[in-house]
Amino acid sequence: MSKRFSRGLSFSVTVVAMLFVGPATASWAQYGERYVAFRAVGPGGLGIEGKGSDVSLREQGDAIVATVGLGSLATGIELRDKHMREKYLETAKYPVLVFTIDKSKVKSPFEGDIDGNLKLHGVTQSVRLHYKATGTEKHASVVGSTKLNMKDFNIAVPSYLGVSVKPDVTVTFKLDVEDR
Question: In CATH terms, is domain 3-179 a member of 2.40.128.110?
C-alpha cells in the first residue's frame, strides 16, 4: 500500500458521522458518496433521521480536523428542520461541528476505534468513533459511527406537542476517497 494512500485513508478515518469530506491534501481526494447522518428515537418506535453532506477535512499542525456544516442537515420535514436548526442546534450561533484528532493516534488496522475531541454547540467532549475502511490501494470507502448524548453538549432534547426523543443520538458517516 502506498504511503500516500495510507496517509489519505488515515485522514478519512477521522471523519464523524459522517460524514463527509473535501480534498485535504494533494495526495487524495473525495469521490462518490459522502454523508453524515443521525438518528434519534422516541416513544412508540418514533424515529427521526437526518442527513447532510457539507463536510470538509484538513490538516492543522499535528491534528486532523473534520468540520460538518450543521445548517445542511435535513430530516425531510421543513418545520422539523427549522426547529432543529433554530431552537436546538442554534446554527446561527454554532454553525459547525468540529472533530479533531492527533495524527499520531491514527493507526493502521482498517477497522477500529479512534478517540478525538468533538466540539458541538460550543461544548467540547472526548468522543470515541468506530470506523471500517474497505477498498483497494487506489479507492477506499470509509464508514463509521458514534453515539452522542445531546445533554453532554448543552442541546435541549427536542420535543414537539409533548412528544420528546431520547437524548442519545446515533451518528453515522460514509465517504469515499481515492489516491492521486
Answer: yes
Q: Are 54 and 66 in contact (CB under 8 A)?
A: no
10 Å CB burial of residue 126 (0-12, 13-18, 19+) is: exposed
pLDDT per position in the chain (180 positions), as tens?
Answer: 444 333 333 333 333 222 333 333 435 566 767 789 999 998 878 889 999 988 777 778 888 788 899 999 999 999 999 999 999 999 999 999 999 988 887 666 678 898 999 999 999 999 999 988 888 777 778 788 999 999 999 999 998 888 899 999 999 988 776 766
Query: 1-31: buried (b, 16+ CB within 10 Å) or exposed (e) per residue?
Result: eeeebbbbbbbbbbbbbbbbbeebeebbbbe
Rounded CA gap, 44 and 165, in Å?
A: 10
User: DSSP secondary structure string, 82-144?
Assistant: HHIIIIIS-TTT--EEEEEEEGGG--S-SEEEEEEEEEETTEEEEEEEEEEEEE-SSEEEEEE
